[in-house]
Amino acid sequence: MSSPAVTPAPAPAPVLLGRTALVTGAASGIGAACALRLAAAGARVRALDRDAGGLADLTARAHSLPGAVEAEVLDLTDLDAAERAAAGTDVLVNNAGIQLVRPIEDFPPDTFHTMLTVMLEAPFRLIRGALPGMYGRGWGRIVNISSVHGLRASAYKSAYVTAKHGLEGLSKVTALEGAPHGVTSNCVSPGYVRTPLVEKQLADQAAAHSLPVERVLNDVLLAGSAVKRLVEPEEVAEAVAYLCGPYAMSVTGTTMVLDGGWTAR
Ligand code: NAD
């Protein structure tokens, strides 16, 4: 399915000049779009991922931006290293994620564990590492890339739905604790976004639902969405930038949903 093009936005105001941002899963998809958008707003962005090649591509795209994008190779399953990496950041975007589509009885327990580690425990450790510095400076922005699956369940996504529901809860607790210190915490929860994570799951979904791949997009992925298009990564990045900007000081403990009306049902 093709989406109407997103009109390129005018150059954003440099509202994050002097701020440091850490974006996880920044080598691809939504994370790459967030890194570029925050650098366009003037931030020094530390782009963290386990994929060194993807990070090299990203930094090459960031040359002309007012901020900077610096690559940091790290696998977030190293939780102690993740917590250390978050020290000193003003903005934290918890974005890294993985997906496996399988019925519960066939879902490998090791994969369930890894997904919860990367998508829930690592965000906790990154927040834990970031908060002392944010509290000391009296300002911080935490944005957790959740999903419509943080608010709704789908069959065959036990680990993903569990992790994202947990992330929504973690984000709210962070908002309550951070508020007296000038720290906000919110989720951005998209429906299906045009990224490699979605492209990879088309075949899995086709097998799980016994459908040809070409029917999966409309009949499965976009079945719950009133707006029948994929979200573009830049749309998610714009929501993240808003939450880090000067007009979102009172926005905390909530979720910005970009789901084409899915959760309106
Ligand atoms: P993607 O596959 O394009 O990018 C995910 C990135 O995370 C990759 O660069 C990968 O290397 C990195 N990553 C994975 N495991 C890691 C680890 N252990 N350590 C370090 N980096 C690791 O995916 P995406 O679609 O851009 O997804 C980004 C986030 O958005 C995820 O949390 C995902 O759940 C969420 N999301 C995606 C969609 C969608 O439709 N694409 C919808 C809703 C929410």
Automatic annotation (TrEMBL):
Any matching Pfam family: adh_short_C2
Top-level taxon in the UniProt lineage: Bacteria
InterPro entries documented for this protein: 3-OHbutyrate_DH, NAD(P)-bd_dom_sf, Sc_DH/Rdtase_CS, SDR, SDR_fam
Assigned protein family: Belongs to the short-chain dehydrogenases/reductases (SDR) family.
Full protein name: 3-hydroxybutyrate dehydrogenase
Source organism (scientific name): Streptomyces luteireticuli
